[in-house]
Amino acid sequence: MRAEIAEGLRYVRADHRLSVLTAVNATTSLALALLNTLWAVYLLRELEMGPGVFGVVLGVGTLGAALGAWVAPVLVRRYGPGPMMLGALALPPLTQVPLLLASPGPAWQAVIGAALFLQLACAGAAGTTQRSIRQLVTEFGMQARMQAVSICLTSGARPLGTLLAGGLATWAGVRPALAVGAGLLVVPFLVLARSPLRRLRHMPGATRQPAAAAIAAARGHWKGSMEGGTA
What we know:
Number of helices: 10
Shape: globular
């Protein structure tokens, strides 16, 4: 199993599309874990939002996620997967601004609900598209290992985000900690913006490289990288 885990890591690292999208997922997961840990405390205590209103806000956000996943194929056909994902990653940091400026009251509650709707719509659109790209470019024999690498790194970032949320909130307060989380949401956007994927205009075709050849290529790339680093 250790050998298969290592092969999965090398395979993802060797393909810039997989490595970039995995890094986007992991950094997004870290930022959202920080924000989500403090979100309920902030809204219910500091913004004095009632439990019923809090539930409605969450429900509105869920509708945004469903809408984003639904319209993702339309946006991909019109703008291309790269520009669409880049736009979807650019908006979430901005949706945190109303949360940081808000004060108690129905007007701000409505604004926060709308911001969450937009944030989750972007997450649904980008998430659906990046998962499709990863599946299309991965050889069938490596699908499970590729997905396992992504899940491991993404899920592993969540406890770190939770610990960071607790430490920052204790040291500086809830609102400053949320501001840090909003800033961290910029990182996945920068990761994608610095990648050639930002210009991807069409969904890639499925690779036809045999799994054994793909693994061998990944091993060669990894070995070359290690030798270059040692040199």
